[in-house]
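User: Let's play a game. I give you a shape written as tokens, and you guess the letters that built it. Ready? Here's round one.
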């Protein structure tokens, strides 16, 4: 776990104004007017800000729109949608790199019994995020195995981190956009967001935590150990050459004495069943990988 990282202070008032403008269309003007009042109390001042603080939620949209545009220009606050990932509104206007002051903890835990399986829980600044997002963490096979998709590479990329409480990603969904920025790693929330701001971690501590959870197999049941070894050991390129990919690998839900790998093509599924026969996960996985290495019709 990352430690020794202080929790971030509340957003500066310029950022709060930016956020209030960004939410205005969905939340209505009341929050926007209240935030303008807070900004005056906090010491910000401009002619349009004063007028906006005195506006009514019943004022015509076009009047408030004009005040908002004037206020943003007077205070040097960017228009919503124009700030790049990893940046925030700076005190006094303009933008600045988001400071790397957030902390991250990743854990694998059982999913609720009605869903089954496991979930990757994500805590930011000691607050669990997956429940606050779409509802349920993603299965480790979706983001950690066979490849650790949480690794912050040189190019930004998007990763699902939460699914609906029913267990289906797409019914409810939360994604993150991961961006490495020198000594920092930025997360920007997408779709069903658990908090209003993006978060930024010190890159070295982020890398350590992502590597730690990937190397921790203490949560695994025997079939999950076998599944990990199959998913990381099978020749995925050879399967792709034959128009196949591994859909999932686990015990057959009807018979726990049989380990099943499901291969999927564009229009069909292939079930590869291997009996456990009391073997260790490592031995079973070797046999499964050997079977999958054969040509499809052998």
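Assistant: Ready! My guess for every position:
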């Amino acid at each position: 776990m990352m430690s020794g990282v202080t929790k971030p202070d509340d957003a500066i008032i310029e950022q709060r104004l930016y956020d209030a403008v960004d939410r205005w269309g969905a939340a209505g003007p009341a929050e926007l007017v209240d935030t303008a009042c807070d900004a005056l109390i906090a010491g910000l001042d401009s002619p349009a800000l004063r007028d906006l603080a005195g506006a009514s939620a019943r004022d015509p949209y076009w009047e408030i729109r004009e005040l908002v545009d004037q206020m943003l220009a007077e205070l040097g606050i960017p228009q919503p949608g124009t700030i790049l990932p990893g940046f925030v509104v700076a005190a006094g206007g303009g933008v600045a790199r988001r400071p790397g002051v957030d902390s991250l903890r990743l854990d694998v835990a059982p999913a609720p019994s009605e869903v089954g399986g496991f979930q990757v829980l994500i805590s930011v600044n000691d607050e669990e995020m997956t429940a606050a997002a779409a509802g349920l963490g993603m299965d480790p096979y979706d983001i950690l195995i066979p490849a650790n998709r949480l690794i912050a590479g040189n190019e930004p990329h998007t990763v699902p981190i939460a699914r609906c409480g029913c267990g289906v990603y797409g019914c409810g969904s939360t994604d993150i956009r991961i961006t490495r920025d020198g000594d920092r790693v930025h997360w920007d929330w997408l779709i069903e967001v658990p908090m209003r701001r993006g978060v930024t971690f010190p890159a070295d501590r982020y890398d350590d935590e992502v590597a730690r959870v990937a190397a921790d197999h203490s949560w695994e049941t025997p079939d999950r150990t076998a599944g990990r070894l199959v998913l990381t050991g099978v020749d995925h390129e050879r399967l792709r050459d034959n128009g196949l990919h591994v859909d999932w690998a686990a015990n057959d839900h009807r018979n726990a004495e049989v380990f099943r790998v499901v291969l999927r093509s564009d229009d069909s599924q292939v079930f590869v069943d291997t009996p456990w026969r009391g073997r260790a996960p490592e031995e079973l996985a070797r046999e499964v990988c050997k079977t999958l290495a054969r040509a499809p019709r052998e």
